[in-house]
C-alpha cells in the first residue's frame, strides 16, 4: 500500500515542513501524516490560538514535544511570513518544504453560501479582499520568504493547496474560485522562474467538496456518507510531494481523491497527476 510505504520513506525523516493553516482540516491531516513519517513540522494559524494549542497537544501525544511547533501568524502580512520562515529555520535549522494550505473560503462573503450563494455584485468588498489577501497574497509572501533559504541550500518544495476546476467557476463562488485560479497560474509561473534552482512548485487539491470547516456544518451529508470527501485523501500525495521520490517534479497538479492508496506508489502517482497541457486553456 502506497500510504504505508510513504510513512516509512527515509527521505521524510527530519525533513522540515512549514504548513500554513496546519492545525485543522486538510492542514492537520498533512501535519499528522508528516509527523508519523518522522518529519519536523512548523504549523501556523492566523485566528484561533485554541486550535494551535490543541494541535500541539495532539502532536506531543503522537511524537513527543520536539518535532512540532505551532505559531500564531497572519500570512497576509509580508513581515509575518518572513517571521515564520525565520522562526522555522532558527528552531529546526532549515526549511525544506512549504505547504501553502491556509485559505479563506466563500463563507467570508456569506455564511450560508451553500444554500444561498451570493452573486458577484452581492459580495462585500471586504470579503473579496480578505479572500484574495489570504489565498493569493499570503501564498506569495510565504513562498517569496521561503525561496531564499531553499535556493541557498539547493533544495526546496513549495506545495500550493487548490480546489477543483468546477469550484473555480461555479456560480456564487466569487472570490474563492478566482483566488484559486490565480494561485494555480502563479504556481506554474513560479515553477518556471525556479527552474534549475533545486526548488520545485506543485499544486495539490482534494478533488471535490471535502469535510472541513471551510464548508459550514449544516450543509447536509458529510464525509463518509457519500457527498463529501474525507480530508485523508491529502495524506499520501502530500507525503510523496514532500519526499525525494518527487525529485525533479515541478509545475504539476495532483488530485488527492485520485491517489489510490491500495496501489503501488508509481501507479498511484500517475493516476493522481492531472495531464499537462502545453498551452493553458482559460476559457
Q: Would you mind describing this structure in some detail?
A:
It contains nine helices and seven strands; from the N terminus they run H-E-H-E-H-E-H-E-H-E-H-H-E-H-E-H. It has a seven-stranded parallel β-sheet, sandwiched between helices. By secondary structure, the chain is of the alpha/beta class. The longest helix is centred in the middle third of the chain and has 29 residues. Helix 8 links the parallel strand 6 and strand 7. It has one domain: NAD(P)-binding Rossmann-like Domain (Rossmann fold), CATH 3.40.50.
Topology:
Elements: H1 2-7, E1 16-20, H2 25-36, E2 40-45, H3 49-63, E3 68-72, H4 78-92, E4 97-100, H5 125-153, E5 156-161, H6 165-169, H7 176-193, E6 199-205, H8 235-242, E7 253-255, H9 265-272
Parallel strand pairs: 1-2, 1-4, 2-3, 4-5, 5-6, 6-7
Helix pairs in contact: 2-3, 2-8, 4-5, 5-7
Task: Supply the key terms.
single chain; alpha/beta; Rossmann fold; 9 helices; 41% helix; globular
In short:
By secondary structure, the chain is an alpha/beta fold. It has 9 helices and 7 strands, in the order αβαβαβαβαβααβαβα. β4 (97-100), α5 (125-153) and β5 form a beta-alpha-beta unit.
Amino acid at each position: 500500500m502506497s500510504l504505508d510505504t510513504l510513512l516509512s520513506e527515509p527521505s521524510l525523516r527530519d525533513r522540515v515542513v512549514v504548513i500554513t493553516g496546519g492545525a485543522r482540516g486538510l492542514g492537520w491531516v498533512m501535519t499528522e501524516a508528516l509527523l508519523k513519517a518522522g518529519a519536523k513540522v512548523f504549523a501556523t494559524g492566523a485566528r484561533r490560538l485554541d486550535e494551535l494549542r490543541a494541535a500541539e497537544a495532539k502532536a506531543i501525544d503522537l511524537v513527543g514535544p520536539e518535532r512540532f511547533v505551532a505559531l500564531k501568524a497572519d500570512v497576509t502580512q509580508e513581515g509575518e511570513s518572513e517571521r515564520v520562515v525565520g522562526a522555522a529555520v532558527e528552531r529546526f535549522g532549515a526549511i525544506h518544504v512549504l505547504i501553502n494550505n491556509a485559505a479563506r473560503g466563500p463563507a467570508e462573503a456569506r455564511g450560508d453560501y451553500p444554500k444561498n450563494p451570493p452573486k458577484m455584485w452581492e459580495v462585500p468588498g471586504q470579503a473579496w479582499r480578505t479572500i484574495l489577501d489570504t489565498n493569493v497574497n499570503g501564498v506569495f509572501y510565504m513562498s517569496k520568504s521561503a525561496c531564499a533559504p531553499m535556493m541557498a541550500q539547493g533544495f526546496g518544495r513549495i506545495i500550493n493547496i487548490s480546489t477543483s476546476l468546477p469550484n473555480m467557476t461555479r456560480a456564487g463562488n466569487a472570490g474563492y474560485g478566482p483566488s484559486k485560479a490565480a494561485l494555480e497560474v502563479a504556481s506554474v509561473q513560479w515553477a518556471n522562474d525556479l527552474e534549475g534552482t533545486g526548488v520545485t512548485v506543485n499544486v495539490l487539491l482534494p478533488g471535490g467538496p471535502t469535510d472541513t470547516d471551510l464548508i459550514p456544518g449544516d450543509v447536509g451529508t458529510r464525509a463518509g456518507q457519500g457527498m463529501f470527501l474525507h480530508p485523508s485523501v491529502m495524506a499520501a500525495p502530500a507525503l510523496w510531494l514532500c519526499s525525494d521520490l518527487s525529485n525533479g517534479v515541478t509545475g504539476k497538479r495532483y488530485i488527492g481523491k485520485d491517489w489510490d492508496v491500495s496501489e503501488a506508489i508509481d501507479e498511484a502517482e500517475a493516476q493522481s497527476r492531472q495531464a499537462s497541457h502545453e498551452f493553458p486553456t482559460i476559457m
